[in-house]
Amino acid sequence: MKHLRFLIAPSLALAMAAPAVAEKLSLDQISAYLNGIGSAQTSFTQINDDNSISTGKLMIKRPGRARFEYDPPEAALVMAGGGQLAIFDLKSNEPPENYPLRRTPLWVILERNVNLKERDTIVGHSYDGTATTITAQDPKHPDRGTIQLHFTDNPVQLRQWVIQDQSGSETTVVLGEFKRDVQLANKLFNIQRLTNIVAPERDDD
């Protein structure tokens, strides 16, 4: 479970073909792209700081909801919903670790109205000829680490993010092709519902 803590802090090269005509995306373009995501689903590959690799499926239902389902042998599930981010260890009967979603890197892409130009957390905006990268860091809490989001154009798509935590450890998440406007039931993001199943309250009497 230790490597899942990257979601509460924060390489592999971008696994994609270069677009035919690539150019730097503006913060307005990226904001419009993120705001345009209603629901989406994709596969992901996570490269941990110790070079171990995890895979799984990511589901997003904006605003405020996401679900990371890890493939075996991982027995983990990460869920964002109801203003919280929860990390479940499905091998245990213990409640999940819970954190305020606003204090996690995922808030950058899950908040209701994304306006990157207005955010004082954006500390970098660069282009390497293939992808546009924005770097976010909480100026009031730089000890919480940074997140770098990598986007390509034609069409605009989020391809990966890299999270660096306060110790300098990095975790990279590479995303597959997005399936947009998919039907995702709200119960998939209901943290309390899953908590009741995984760790039901015990009767001590």
UniProtKB/TrEMBL annotation:
Record's keyword terms, sorted: Lipoprotein, Signal
Pfam families the record matches: LolA
Domain of life assignment: Bacteria
InterPro entries per record: LolA/LolB/LppX, OM_lipoprot_carrier_LolA-like
Record flagged with keyword Flavoprotein: no
Organism: Cognatishimia activa
Protein name, per record: Lipoprotein chaperone
PANTHER family: OUTER-MEMBRANE LIPOPROTEIN CARRIER PROTEIN
CDD domains: LolA
Signal peptide as annotated in the record: 1-22
